[in-house]
Design brief:
By secondary structure, the chain is an alpha/beta fold. The protein contains 19 helices and 12 strands. The protein has helices at residues 2-38, 62-71, 75-85, 115-133, 138-142, 166-191, 198-201, 225-228, 233-249, 269-281, 299-303, 311-315, 321-324, 345-349, 352-364, 380-384, 402-414, 429-434, 441-453, and strands at residues 43-53, 94-99, 105-112, 147-153, 209-214, 257-261, 287-291, 326-327, 333-336, 367-371, 390-396, 421-427. It has an 8-stranded mixed beta sheet with strand order 5-12-11-6-10-7-9-8. Strands 2-3-1-4 form a 4-stranded antiparallel beta sheet. Helix 17 links the parallel strand 11 and strand 12. The protein is rod-shaped and about 130 Å long. It starts with a helix and ends with a helix.
Length: 454
């Protein structure tokens, strides 16, 4: 149900941004620990004192007792208290009290950085009040009676401080840090304009994630992961994408072909198209990789092939397909570069000559993979889509903007096009493993080796 989707989305956000949560909790706990370490411990002691007039015929009233309680914070009590205990005149004295209901008993509380001094202060309050008590009870003073203090429960030094309380403080700090981290995590997530996973994609499309492609640190030096590390995790990702495309191909109406595009330039669509074609050819399938990015062709350069002749050469009837299609080594892969850059790429992509060319390509090969231009800047992918079986939209984790993906999907929907699915590029090793992929021991070793180098 909807609640399950929301919970999964929430857990996905936590998985993506858990470092924020951990950092906030650790900082809060560390801050509480630092404050506790720098805070002098405070000890508290309690005593109960019975106050009564020294002579018969008069009992201390509730008003008298409340007066004594109010005097506890004044020099009238605190100065004599210091003198009784032999304390310096600047020694802080923290004593307070309350009146027991229905009886002339005072509950005295004393606090100090020393547990012994706290107990001494509490025990000395009763006698000190008795010494001065008659002066502040008008009837006692008129009858020249004094006050007698009897200790009911003597104060003893406390073995544990009242504050700080490290365990409680750490627990509260951890809770506060968790709440703060959760808030910052959600704020960062919803304020972030970039795509980080399938959660954002699911907001605009219910099409599946066909592949999650590993982030490669050496992509510039070794763009062909299927060649440089055929048993690595990245190669497994491309094989998985090819497997999923085979399932999707069942629904394409017999046009065994896919174009790979992205919302904006720079998402790695060419590398993805090249490696997907290599992965498919490794299964023995007769594959053709076509560079239909007639504005900025890069397939030939990426694969180290001659790119001066290709699609446009055939469209101009300056060469035949057999002349411009180049085999890739001794594999089942062939490559058709873009050829010379034309002044009218969109018109060429939508021409009858291009449609005729693709009919011949689909008849010759088991699978055709097309590297097409990005969706938002130009209309070429929309025109090319009628030539192929489906469109795979590539998004780059941490780079593709949500607004760009939304705009691309909206442009496709306006033309009545739905992508067959999505591929997430630049996924971290931990991100790929999180989705439960199975890797061989060789693949695991390769992944561990990358982490060791990193």
């Amino acid at each position: 149900g909807g609640a399950d989707v929301q919970f999964r989305d929430f857990m996905s956000i936590i998985r993506m941004r858990w470092p924020i949560l951990v950092i906030c909790v650790l900082l809060a706990v560390a801050g509480a620990a630092a404050v506790d370490y720098r805070t002098s411990p405070i000890y508290e002691s309690h005593t109960r004192v019975f106050l009564a007039a020294s002579g018969a015929g008069y009992a201390l009233s509730s008003s008298d007792l409340k007066t004594y309680v109010e005097l506890l914070g004044s020099p009238v009590v605190q100065d004599p208290l210091r003198q009784r205990l032999g304390l310096p005149a600047d020694t802080p004295v923290d004593v307070s009290g309350s009146v027991s209901v229905g009886s002339p008993i005072l509950d005295i509380t004393a606090r100090s950085t020393s547990p012994q001094l706290a107990a001494r202060l509490a025990n000395a309050v009763g006698p000190t009040l008795a010494d001065i008590g008659g002066q502040y009870a008008p009837l006692l003073r008129s009858q020249k009676q004094t006050v007698k203090a009897t200790t009911i429960t003597p104060a003893v030094p406390s073995s544990t401080p009242l504050s700080p309380t490290p365990r409680r403080d750490m627990a509260l700090a951890a809770l506060a840090g968790f709440a703060l981290g959760l808030g910052l995590m959600l704020l960062r997530h919803y304020a972030d304009t970039r795509i980080h996973g399938e959660t954002e994609i699911a907001q605009w499309s219910d099409k599946p994630i066909l592949g999650r492609l590993l982030k490669l640190r050496d992509a510039a030096a070794n763009p062909l992961a299927m060649v440089s590390d055929p048993h690595g995790v990245a190669a497994e990702n491309y094989r998985k994408l090819v497997t999923n495309l085979q399932f999707v191909d069942v629904t394409t109406g017999g046009r065994h072909s896919f174009q790979i595009s992205s919302p904006m330039p720079g998402d790695g669509k060419t590398l993805t198209a090249v490696n997907v074609a290599l992965a498919a050819a490794n299964t023995g399938t007769k594959v053709l990789l076509v560079d239909c990015d007639l504005r900025h062709p890069s397939v030939a350069r990426t694969m180290g092939l001659e790119g001066g002749v290709g699609v446009t050469t055939v469209l101009l009837r300056q060469a035949s397909l057999d002349d411009v299609i180049q085999p890739w080594g001794d594999t089942a892969l062939s490559v058709l570069p873009a050829g010379e850059i034309p002044p009218n790429p969109t018109e060429l992509s939508g021409s009858e000559a291009m449609a005729t060319l693709f009919d011949e390509l689909l008849a010759r090969f088991d699978l055709v993979i097309v590297d097409s231009p990005p969706i938002n800047p130009v209309a070429d992918p929309i025109v090319i889509n009628r030539l192929v079986g489906g469109l795979v939209v590539l998004t780059t984790v941490g780079r593709t903007r949500k607004r760009d993906l939304h705009a691309a999907l909206k442009a496709l929907a306006t033309a009545g096009i739905e992508p067959v699915g999505f591929a997430l590029n630049q996924v971290t090793v931990s991100g790929v493993k999180r989705y439960g992929y199975y890797y061989s021991e060789t693949s695991k070793a390769a992944a561990q080796g990358r982490r060791a180098v990193a």
